[in-house]
Amino acid sequence: MLKNLFKTAYRNLSKNKFFTVLNVLGLALGMSLSLLFIALLSFLSRYDNFHPHKERIYRVITQVHDKVENPRFASAPVGLAYHLENNFSGIENVVRVHRSLYGDAVYGEKKIRLGGYFADPAFFEVFNFPLLKGDKTTALTNPNSIVISETEARKIFGEKEAIGEMIRMEGYGNFVVTGIIKDLPVNSHMQFGAIASFATIISDKGTSFLQREEGWRSFENSFVYLRILEGTDPENIQQGLNKVAKQQYAKQQIKTSFKLQALDDIVPGPQLYDSLGQTWDYLSLFLTGLITLVVLVPACSNYINLSISQSLERMREIGVRKVFGAQKEQIFLQFIVESTTIVLVALLLSGMIYEIIRTDFISQMVETSPIDLSPTWVTFLGFLSFAVLVGIIAGIVPALYFSRLSPVNALKGKEVKTSGRSLFRKVVLTTQFMLSLGFIMAVVIMLRQYQFSVNYDFGFDQANVLDVELQNVDPQIFKNEYGKVPSVKRISMSSHLLGIEPGPERQLQFLHQEDSIGAFSISVDEAFISNMKLKFLAGNDFTQDKAHNAKQIIVNQEFVKKLKLTEPSAAIGRWFVLPEGKAVRISGVLKSFHFADLKEEITPFFFEYNPDTFHFANLKLETSDVAGSITAMETLWKRIGGEGKFTAQLFSQEIKSAYDFYIMVMKLWGFLGLLAITVACLGLLGTVSFTIKKRYKEISIRKVMGASSESLVLLLSKDFFILMVIASAITIPVMYFMFTHLLATTQHYSIEIGFLEIFISVMIMMILGLATILSQTLKAANANPVEFLRAE
Predict the structure, then answer these.
(1) 448 against 691, higher pLDDT
(2) Where are the domains of the chain?
(3) d(C-alpha 369, C-alpha 362), whole Å
(4) pLDDT of residue 60
(5) CA pair distance 583, 513, nearest whole angstrom
(6) Which of 383, 429, 507, 736 lies 20 to 30 angstroms, CA to CA, from 747?
(7) How does strand 255-262 pair with strand 616-621?
(8) For residues 579 and 545, is the Cβ–Cβ distance under 8 A?
(9) What is this structure's pTM?
(10) What's the CA gap between 215 and 32, in Å, rounded?
(11) Which of 327, 289, 307, 291 is closest to 394 using CA atoms?
């Protein structure tokens, strides 16, 4: 029976090649994103599955009851670990993890950025992160011991044996390398380049910090993991945690509770603040799944619409089959088999689309989360199950429609009267136009926002400025050597990149007063301000006298406004005390400029002079051959930079790179828009084609009676044009208000959505929609009426 059903399905699909191709293309495009989502779910289901006894590993999370937001944190007070170790039974190991190991690792002439955690010695007992070299039981026992990954070891030591070597971490001191860890798998919620001993923190801060009172209120970056003994009921430990929370927060206004979170529930898991490593919360997954439905549902709707639209051509077939004894269930099953067959064919095409888009999807995720979407047998099984499910869902409506036809009505070619048929078609098409226009507007607005951002006047000169990372090269040596390069006009130094990194926010206390003012700061040399062509409103620049410069700061207009002074000159000579205790005097006031990116409003800011913090050299070039200059500079770097790699980029390019997230958003929404528009046009093409097919005799009679081709095109197109107008009327205000709010919250200095963005978006949709409609209506209007009236 099943064989006959597939054979009949093949014949019917072959006979209606045009509609079969439309359905396959539409469903393939609609399913492609869903396949990506299924692969993502398959990958997330494998998170942290490589740890032995993972079902016995838990993390303690914290719930704060503040009667407002009641936030939940992945972190927990470090003092809680003491209670778990000493006052609880049924616990095999307790591991404290502190996410504060981050900075430049220095080894000889090399300096690389290194990040990771401080952890207890039991870390390698609880978690399965194999050591390639070293003893996992003792690697994290002593203070200032560090275990680094094999990749980081190659970066720092090359082929040299790393065990026993000393590296210096800026801000932490010297560490002895006691182990080399195998590179972490991508399906680990922890991602780090190094693990240092927790004893390092204790030796630095003292054992008192483990139980100090403020540690129970402020526990950022502190995490507590445990592995329970086999047979232990986690509920017993949970009850103990409830008692600890009640004791510790009995006298606090804000109450806090602790909860065990199983390792399997971390990724995916609930949304938590201060998360460690990679996170995929349930809300993010839900929204991602919702996006896939935005494209899949219209594709399925197209299939339903086109299948029912062909009802007249299938009537007699159904009638004959019923006369010969076909049961209602058999007719129903026939259409389910047909829809499933089409979906399975579409699956092959969507699989090819999936292979194309998954690489780009992964590249977009590099900054946020390591991810592996390579298909496995579980993924393929998910794909197949999903395709069958879609086939059944898409085929149910046509199957119910045709299975309830009576043999008499079917043989007469009478359709089942359903008042909602026409309305359903119109709603489907209008919804698809709304989605298409919405995505088009999103891409156009993001493109305009990106252009606005990269072309914005930041208040300083960024043309022909090359920023070079100093790494561990002495700034004065760099100036002396690179000042001899013919293409270099001027050289200045800075701790951060202007317009990209705001630098640290610091509190400046008024001299001999308790009041203070908060301001961001960047350390620069005497050539920086003139190099960037910043404009003075009052006062003077730094001088060649280093001792004098160390006592001076140069502020912006906002700093003066914060002091409630009307004239910039009134701020000159005022004294402040920096957080480290150094007294400084305002020597100059600059016209406001964007020291941070455009996301932030311009706030009080000052330049100081501190050569110890210089990280970048800013080279003003006077040449058209920038590439040639960089090549010459790389050669020079090999002489003064040691083994460090020459890292340089044009300032203007760095400004553009700071807004690359708009490009990423445009690519994502552009792809979604392309899918939505293509699915909409395929559905529109099928609907218009079949509508015109049913009206060929009417069109022919009108032509014989003298109707022009133009009037016929208008007659056939106006209903669809009205649907596009309705879609535009609904979508435009929704997208306008949504993006007005979104841009205002995303970036302080943003575009105002105006007529141009709306007009361009509507015109793109109209051109695509009308081109689809006219491709069929022009053909029908110009057809020879004799061909369709011959039988009359």
Answers:
(1) 448
(2) 2-37+284-449+661-789, 54-265, 465-657
(3) 9
(4) 95
(5) 13
(6) 507
(7) unpaired
(8) no
(9) 0.71
(10) 49
(11) 307
